[in-house]
Amino acid sequence: MEKFNNMFEQVVLLGIIPILGGSRNLTTAVITTVILILTAIVLRLLSRLLNQDSLAGAHWVLFLAVGISLSYIAYLFSAFLYPQVYQHSGMYLLLIGISPLTYYGCKLNVSFADLWKRFNIFFLTIVAVSFFRELIGFGSILGRSFFEVGFAPLSSFQGAPGAFIILGTIWLIFRWIISANLLNESMLKIEEGTEIE
Amino acid sequence: MSELMGVFLENIVPQNMVLIYFLGVLLSIAETEGVRTTLFKGVKYSLGLFFAVIIGVIVAESLPLALEFLHPWIFLLTALGAVFIFQLIGDLKGEFYGIPRLFLPLVPIVGVQYLLMDRGLSFDVMVISALANSIGFYLGFILTGTIKEQIMISETDDIYKFAPALLISLGVLSMAVMGFGFLY
Hints:
- The complex is a heterodimer.
- Chain A is an all-alpha fold.
- Chain A is 61% helix and 2% strand.
- Chain A has one domain.
- Chain B has one domain.
- Chains A and B meet through helix 1, helix 2, helix 4, helix 5 and helix 7 of A and helix 2, helix 4, strand 1, strand 2 and helix 5 of B.
């Protein structure tokens, strides 16, 4: 399993709640990603301003309080600007504020380039999951239907089963790509000292 | 079937917090090992979830309408209280993929509190829902542990091991529990 200890697996595991919950359709996926990136960048700035050693481990609690405040603001904005997204995925927008991936950039040994790489992986994954969920579950892309009247989409893919199965399949395809050496593994190397299960 | 019994069963199966709302997925993936250890660990997390949710919702409901904006912080505080107790009894130590394990139970605890507050339930229905969600979490936790153990002992290629196969299995299980929706 050592060969699969890479950034993709880390990002998908740490960000699994926003990916599964925020991938109902493409619009929701983009909004989820924007909120996650903005929250993570503000938290990273805060973490660089504070002396983390002087807080003796309590810095995570402080970051969590700020993180949930930011995601709460985003959650309220989504209710005003995107009521459809709020109605179906509002809870997951709020939960971005306590998702582990949001806080990864607060670690002192993580560079901004590596953090940005993780955002890209997150965005590509959530967009891929939401694309197939919307296509198979609703029979549409960005709200535009591609099928004739009377076509019945696979409604279970609108909900949790679709999210699990599509994410699992994408993960599997990624592992095949890694195993076939089609991707440079050093691109996805994670930081030294990061404990892997 | 009485209304309370209906609410109880509905929260365990067709609205399961691991398989339908994804709330307990990360905790289940990260904290399960073999089935034996999972059985005991699951009880601890389920009890923590139950009491934290009850306390959080009671405190949030006791606030006047003008202070409703404080709900997320109350949910977070109760979740952190539960994490503190888990850490006192020796759980959630160390890191998971570079992030402290204290983050893992926050999503399920805050998420269930949000769900129960959002539904605007009476006190008895809220307690029954919290209990049912804890039992639903326990079932999801054990199922995840069982699937993980089966995947680990199987002789399949490494590509299929751990998370991809686990997620696809959870997807199939999720489809199965959705099928019980017509009962309630």
